[in-house]
Design a protein that fits this description.
This protein is of the alpha/beta class. Helices cover about 40% and strands about 15% of the residues. The strands form 2 sheets. The chain has an 8-stranded parallel β-barrel with strand order 1-2-3-4-5-6-7-8, surrounded by 5 helices. It starts with a helix and ends in a 10-residue tail after the last helix.
């Protein structure tokens, strides 16, 4: 399945495993690369820039295929040393970077000078246009269904993807709510050049999260997420559990960030993924968990998505416009 994205970024399949805090580690990223897709090590999961250099080297020991690094830029009272992480990426010879959060304008010249292609994650048409204006090479557009931060416009992918693709001339990845071949084919039909999946890749054999987390994703439906930080103007979609339900309840009665700070601490979320205690803290999951019913190896997942997508395009869809069975007759 060749698209503008696969051609520009030198990968086999138009499928991406974007950066995920505490999840985007070498084992998962290498498995995604070996399957012909594109995976991203999450820079800030590593405690220091030096640790990131070692994680990149560890990934290279497991694959000779392309992979990238995610650098998420967020406002903070005590921000991490972004310039040092950026230099670690450059010095390690990475050729693809995924940025997210705030504008990557400060970092873009450094990446460009090193010959690095940049994909920026956006949640709206206006942000996508701004990303194009500063010179990114591709945009990943997050619909309201996504895990993590969907922005404040609440526009789902069915509307947001074509709204973006009709205005951009660079490759676009569809993100949010996609977990199988149907989502891939739909995204391509809406004008995207590939898909970016988080929750689906988190629920694979090579994913470094606890088995209980993966099993809970399989057990959950599309209804088992919570939107937190809504009243603070920084909406985040996370899995439904005791902690996220408590946060929503506190917010409903009026709250400042200090009122929920301890509940949403990143260290508590990390404990969920590492120890498997599902109520230890908040943890990220998208509505697409309602479409996930197994925990396959990454290679099996990618191969299945591609083969089923090709079958959908060649058989079901072509029959609707050809001499095949009437629309709705194929199952």
């Amino acid at each position: 399945m060749r698209t503008r994205f696969t051609e520009a970024f030198g990968i086999e399949h138009p499928i991406v495993a974007g950066g995920m805090m505490w999840v985007g580690r070498a084992e998962l990223v290498a498995a995604v690369a070996n399957a012909g897709a594109l995976g991203f090590i999450t820079a800030l999961t590593q405690p220091t820039p030096e640790d990131l250099v070692r994680e990149i080297a560890r990934c290279r020991d497991m694959t000779d295929k392309p992979f990238g690094v995610n650098l998420t830029i967020l406002p903070s009272i005590a921000p991490p040393p972004y310039a040092e992480y950026r230099q670690a990426i450059v010095d390690s010879g990475i050729t693809i970077v995924e940025t997210a959060g705030s504008s990557p304008a400060e970092h873009l010249p450094h990446f460009k000078d090193a010959g690095i292609k940049v994909i920026h994650k956006c949640t709206s048409v206006r942000h996508a246009l701004k990303a194009v204006g500063i010179g990114v090479d591709a945009v990943s557009i997050d619909g309201f269904e996504c895990a993590g931060h969907p922005g404040e416009d609440d526009v789902p992918g069915l509307v947001l993807i074509p709204a973006v693709t009709q205005k951009l001339s660079i490759p676009v990845l569809a993100s949010g709510g996609i977990a199988d071949a149907r989502g891939l084919v739909a995204a391509l039909a809406l004008g995207a050049d590939g898909v970016n999946m988080g929750t689906r890749f988190m629920c694979t054999e090579e994913s470094p999260v606890a088995q209980s987390v993966k099993e809970q994703i399989v057990a959950n439906t599309e209804l088992n997420t919570k939107l937190i930080f809504r009243t603070l103007g920084n909406t985040a979609r996370v899995a439904e559990n005791a902690v996220s339900s408590e946060v929503v309840d506190i917010e409903s009665r009026g709250a400042t960030f200090d009122d929920i700070r301890d509940l949403v601490a990143g260290a508590r979320g990390r404990k969920v993924f590492e120890d498997g205690d599902l109520d230890a803290g908040i943890w990220t999951a998208g509505q697409c968990q309602g479409l996930i019913d197994d925990i396959p190896a990454v290679g099996e997942l990618v191969a299945r998505m591609v083969s089923e997508a090709e079958e959908l395009i060649a058989c079901r869809l072509s029959a609707m416009v050809g001499a095949g069975e009437p629309v709705g007759a194929l199952r």
